[in-house]
Amino acid sequence: MRQNQPIWYDSSLGGWRLFCYEDIVRVQNDYQTFSSEPSNGGSFSIIALDPPRHRQLRSLVTPAFSARTILQQTPRIQRIARELLETALARGAMDMVADFAVPFPILVIADLLGLPPDNWQRVKEWTDTLINQSSSEVAQRSGRNASSTLPLDEISRVLAQATQDHHQQPRESLLRLLLAAEVDGQRLTEQELLGFFLTLLVAGNITTTQLLGNAILCFDENPEAWEQLQRDRSLVASAVEEVLRYLPPNRGTGGSRTIIGGRRATTDVEICGQLIRRGEEVFVTTISANFDEHHFSDPDRFDIGRMPNHHLSFGHGIHFCLGAPLARLETKIALELLLDLLPNWRLLHNVPLEQIRNHIVFGAQRLPLVFST
Ligand code: HEM
Fold it and tell me: Could you tell me the distance, in angstroms and rounded to a whole number, from the CA of residue 203 to the centre of ligand 1?
């Protein structure tokens, strides 16, 4: 596609799809021409807002998500990871997805938000509902039918309870930041607060889950890279980047701007000689950009020492993933823990891999590991 048809109308998404690195970066940089807001306006999340509102709301939480602040959470994140892995190890068998990759990012973000760890399964269900809802929007457009709705009442109740807990026993948390936040002297509305809460709670968990699972797939396919990592742990951070490039959790096929933003042309514009009309949608194909030979040498090679590695898996421009430092740290901690506790893991190959079924994220549903301790 990069060579022959760098822009293509994808009728299943109802929009234009881009394949080349340069074009994707151009669209993500030019937020005036390519809006993140849905045509009917309004959105529950900063991911689907344009400036100036986007900038105002994002700046509220930027400090809390900076690499430096996130790094301070290392011991707590390590503790959560270790507890999960040790529980699985004690059982002697493990599904990397269900036993680790699913609960880990949810427990971490719940902890950062100041929520009790007990209802993480519900958060997982909300996430799946939201993701399936977005997937089904795509399905509906392509003539299939499915629908599901988010239990907003229940989520509001959890937020109200967390707010009450916070007032009774204040502690440093993202929630404290959101409750105290003011934009131009005005508090966030209840709906904005709920939108932010929900975005933070769900935005990062399914993607990070798939990233952790995809790391297993990459190392299973490239055992020599795992051996290299065992010999040289200084490569863990660049290995995380290479997994992000090589097998991104979000291939960029996202059909809904509510989760992984598509863009809408605000004016007639030409890309690669193709006229995009005002109001038409444009989607990026991250997995293609990450293999663009104009940007990556030997792109088909999984190279954990790759440097530089400017993949587009966290997006680009003003909507660059807010949670990138957190997702990176979580994955680094998980890989280091595997190196410590489970260096000789192997993926069980007698069950066929099943792909997670939705349009937004890419990864396996189950990853049964065998190991000797
Ligand atoms: C490997 C894990 C992750 C991947 C691959 C990922 C991917 C992305 C991408 C591609 C975007 C840009 C969407 C666009 O341009 O429209 C984005 C935005 C965002 N991500 Fe992530 N994400 C991950 C983890 C997280 C985590 C852990 C959090 C928070 C806890 C998070 C919160 C957000 C938020 C709030 C935005 C919207 C930023 C904005 O619009 O300014 N993400 N993410």
Answer: 6
3-state class percentages of the chain: helix first, strand second, coil last, to nearest 5: 50, 10, 40
Tell me the CA–centroid distance for residue 131 and ligand 1, in Å. 14
**Angle CA 130–209–254, to nearest 5:** 45
Ligand 1 within 6 A of CB of 201: no
Cβ neighbour number for residue 87 with a 10 Å cutoff: 13
User: How many whole angstroms separate alpha carbon 367 and alpha carbon 103?
Assistant: 14
Atom number of ligand 1 nearest to Cα 109: 30
Nearest-atom index, ligand 1, CA of 199: 35
pLDDT score at 201: 85
Looking up tokens 């991911």, which residue turns up? 47
Helix axes 190-203, 120-141, angle to 10 degrees: 90
Cis amide bond preceding 352, omega within 30: no
User: Hey, where are the domains in the chain?
Assistant: 46-254+317-370
| Ligand 1 proximity of 331 Cβ (cutoff 6 Å) | no
Beta strands in the chain (DSSP E): 7-10, 15-18, 34-35, 94-95, 182-183, 186-187, 263-265, 269-271, 274-276, 281-284, 346-347, 368-370
Q: What is the pLDDT of residue 145?
A: 38
Q: What is the mean pLDDT of each run of 10 residues along the chain (373 residues)?
A: 95 89 96 90 80 92 90 96 95 92 95 86 83 59 48 87 90 85 81 87 86 97 98 98 95 52 91 96 92 98 98 95 96 98 94 81 91 78
**pLDDT value of position 360:** 73
Query: Could you tell me whether strands 281-284 and 15-18 are parallel, antiparallel, or unpaired per DSSP bridges?
Result: parallel
Give yes or no for residue 204 CB within 6 A of ligand 1: yes
**Ligand 1 pocket check for 255: Cβ under 6 Å:** no
What's the CATH number for 46-254+317-370? Answer: 1.10.630.10
The atom of ligand 1 lying closest to the CA of 201 is 30
pLDDT value, residue 21: 97
**pLDDT value at position 255?**
46
pLDDT at 180: 86
Nearest ligand 1 atom, CA 320: 12
- Residues recorded for the chain: 373
d(CA 368, CA 290): 28
